[in-house]
Design goal:
Elements (H helix, E strand, L loop, with lengths): L1 E5 L14 H11 L3 E5 L12 H14 L2 E6 L16 H19 L3 E4 L10 H20 L4 E5 L8 H11 L4 E4 L3 H6 L3 H8 L3 E6 L1 E5 L2 E4 L4 E4 L4 E5 L8 H10 L5 E4 L11 H17 L6
Length: about 300
């Protein structure tokens, strides 16, 4: 596997230190990464802000830092808002957005644009939502193919979240440039067998994005009972890699046994134990590289 650092980790969206995109690329190289995944939104690489000069500058920065950009990350939600009718072309907006990122990816030498599916909307027909995802992702794939770029679906949003469901979605999309960006945190939280799920997904997987977490049980005080109610959903918090509850040894072994040898991305995309200072972000990013090398999952 090739180690990669996700720029969203240094975007400041969860109280972290902020690095501009060029500074982030240089910083990733200094930390020992050979590849980056770049967030396709502000403050990093929104298509609204990109022109030929900006692309040239970024390409020169990547070369100088001896860093590849392997993936651009799109932030999509292929749900249609409830109660607004059909006059606003929400899906067309997102198709155009992903196509713009595919065009930029080609210029940067990136092979993949990562997307999400959709959050379920209560009161809307689920098969209809599924069909919207299928038809929209097909068009995204067809437009990305014109730029020599593939789509990678991350198991993040509600539609096609379970691993078996995700593979069903791929079958329905039926495009040669549609793959998976398969991660461990979602199946781990939902109780899937990480080894078996990773092995099942591996033949379809081109990238995996990794972070580790602890689960903290939640309770609410009931004074009339002089007692507490256990809440159904735990609080989940990011921690340095290898210190959480996710069995990454089983996950990566499943990916390897299934034939995956793609890009392994480290991300810090939520509040992080130790705070958001640059020193803590760097410590966590370095810890990921150390863990992956120590366990034999990445190539030097």
């Amino acid at each position: 596997m090739q180690p990669c650092l996700f720029s969203i980790s240094y975007a400041g969206l969860w109280g972290q230190a902020v690095l501009g995109l060029s500074d982030f690329v240089r910083h990733a190289g200094e930390l020992g990464f050979s590849s980056v995944m770049i967030a396709g939104k502000r403050p990093h690489l929104s298509p609204l802000d990109v022109d030929e000069e900006r692309i040239l500058e970024l390409k020169e920065t990547l070369v100088a830092a001896r860093i590849r950009c392997d993936v651009l990350a799109a932030y999509t939600n292929l749900s249609l808002p409830s109660g607004v009718g059909g006059e606003v072309p929400h899906l067309e907006f997102q198709i155009a957005y992903v196509e713009s990122l595919a065009r930029i990816a080609r210029e940067l030498g990136a092979k993949f644009v990562r997307i999400f599916t959709a959050y379920e909307n209560d009161g809307q027909d689920l098969p209809w939502q599924w069909r919207n995802c299928v038809s929209t992702i097909r068009e995204m794939c067809d437009r990305a193919a014109a730029h020599g770029v593939s789509i990678a679906i991350q198991n993040h949003h509600d539609i096609a979240l379970h691993t078996e469901s995700l593979i069903e979605l791929l079958t329905d999309i039926n495009r040669p440039n549609c793959h998976l960006g398969f991660d461990a945190w979602s199946p781990a939280l939902r109780g899937e067998n990480l080894y078996e799920s990773a092995k099942l997904a591996a033949p379809h997987t081109v990238i995996t994005t990794n972070a580790d977490y602890v689960r903290t049980p939640r309770y609410r005080y009931r004074p009339e009972m002089v007692n507490y109610d256990r809440q159904p959903t735990d609080w989940v918090r990011a921690v340095p890699f290898g210190r959480g509850f996710i069995d990454y040894s089983a996950f990566f072994q499943g990916l390897q046994d299934g034939g995956f040898d793609g890009t392994a991305v480290f991300e810090m995309c939520s509040p992080l134990r130790g705070g958001g200072e640059l020193s803590n972000l760097d410590t966590c990013a370095s810890a990921y590289l150390h863990w992956m090398k120590a366990h034999g999952f990445i190539r030097e």
